[in-house]
Structure formats: C-alpha cells, structure tokens
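hiii, so i know i said id send this last week but things got crazy w the move. better late than never?? heres the sequnce for the chain we talked about at the cafe, plus the structure i predicted for it. fair warning i was half asleep when i ran it
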Amino acid sequence: MLVLIIAIVSLILQLFLPWWIISPIAFGLSFLMAKSGKQAFGSAFLAILLLWIGMGLIHTLPNENILANRVGSMLNLPDTSLKWIIVLLLTGIIGGLAAGFSGLSGYYVKEAVRKS
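okay and structure toks below
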C-alpha cells in the first residue's frame, strides 16, 4: 500500500516540481505510515524504481531509444543494442536509492520522536 501511495503522489508532483520531490514525499509518507525500517526503505525504493523505469520507457520507446543510447555512450557503456535498458535500470536504481534512504530517514525520525 505504501509503495502505491508513494508512486502516485510522486508521479503527480513530479509533473510540476523538480525530480528531487521524491525525497520529501518518501520521508513524509514513511514518517506517517511505515511500520519498520525495512518497509520504509523497501517501499520507497520500489515505488520510485518502478515509477522512473516506467516513465523512462514511456519517453524512450516512441523515439527509438535515441537519447537513452546517447546517454549510454556518454557513460562509456559497451556498444550493444541493450544500452538503453542499462541506462533505464541505472536511472531507476539511483532514484530508488534516493527515495529509499529518505524513507528510512523518515521512519527513524518517527522512532526518535516517539522515544523522546
């Protein structure tokens, strides 16, 4: 449930705000809803990983992966026809880590406030 809420709120707010809005969203929702650190990190990571890979696919498939392949070339990835897939996975993992650590921080702040 937390995965779905983080993904939907992030999708809507990223239409109007910068990419890093995922961090306050993951922090706040994990603060309010997460029951463990594992759930906080995992939910935020998975939500943004899937969201960013999905959005990347929506943007890269219509243009035959031209931009994703060029980014792969800039990253010195091997010349294969799957270069764009590696770029999408890297994008999703980086966004997922940013959101996951923000979600974990939100859970730990909740625990610190509750214990004090």
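btw Residues 83-115 form the longest helix (33 residues). thought thatd interest u
miss u guys!!
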